[in-house]
Amino acid sequence: MNRARAWAQSLNPSGADFNRVQILPSIFAADFVRLGEEIRRVEQAGVGMIHVDIMDGHFVPNFTMGTPITESIRRFTHVKLDHHLMIEDPDTYAPIFIKAGADCVSVHEEVCRNLDRTLHMVREQGAKAGVVINPATPVSQLENVLDIADYVLVMSVNPGYGGQKFIPNSLRKVRELVRMREQRGLDFAIEIDGGVGMENIADVARAGVDWVVAGSSVFHAPDPAQAVRDMQRAAEEALSVRV
User: Which residue ranges make up each domain of the chain?
Assistant: First the structure.
């Protein structure tokens, strides 16, 4: 198990033996009127991280939460907070979200003029540093920062809205990242976000994903905690079958 993957494993407050894949519920799909209750429900499934989408209405055509929400969540739960910054100025706002309580911060390759410097800055501020690529961005764009990033987030939908259909080409990118990680002896985790549910979690796990962001498939389910358990079980079963 690589360093970033082992770090995620250590976050699991339940002590459950989740071999590889971690499910990260995305609160973008939660009911914000009952956000505390929603978080408690997925905590029952032993999640180690919660995914928080930050959108500025410029880089993506939608707005979401700011630092007051992060601060409130941080006071409410000890689960680690994975912040995905879909914003045009991550250099300004990453430190602010880290101060508010973000444990992981991922920034988009498409907006960072000096990606190397931005990733170093996130780590220096005390958070895990992730880099994100959109569906139209090739993995080759990350070749020179893979030794800096703690994790790589592959968008499997176009960012900005929840409930979109999974883009199959995303799995080719995941497999390419797995090969690069092995060939270069690196230890970044691989995360995927968008359109993942029970119908494709097995394929996602077999491709080599370590962290699976799940929004609608968790929080729109009748029992979010059971939805997390079902996805976790399906991922583990997929990895146990050698093909």
Answer: 3-11+20-238
Where do we find the tokens 């250099």? 91
At 200 the three-state DSSP class reads coil
What distance separates the 2 farthest-apart alpha carbons in the chain? 47
Among 53, 103, 150, 230, the active-site one is 53
Would you call 31 a catalytic residue per the annotation?
no
* Top-confidence residue, 163 or 59: 59
Beta strand ranges found along the chain (DSSP E): 22-25, 49-55, 80-86, 104-108, 128-133, 151-155, 189-193, 211-214
- Work out the pLDDT band at 17, boundaries 50, 70, 90: very low
What integer pLDDT is reported at residue 13 of this predicted model?
41
Question: Could you tell me the fold of the domain covering 3-11+20-238?
Answer: TIM Barrel (3.20.20)
pLDDT band, very low/low/confident/very high, at 65 (cuts 50, 70, 90): confident
In the residue annotation, 116 being an active-site residue is answered as: no
**What pLDDT is attached to residue 143?**
95
Catalytic residue among 103, 193, 210, 230: 193
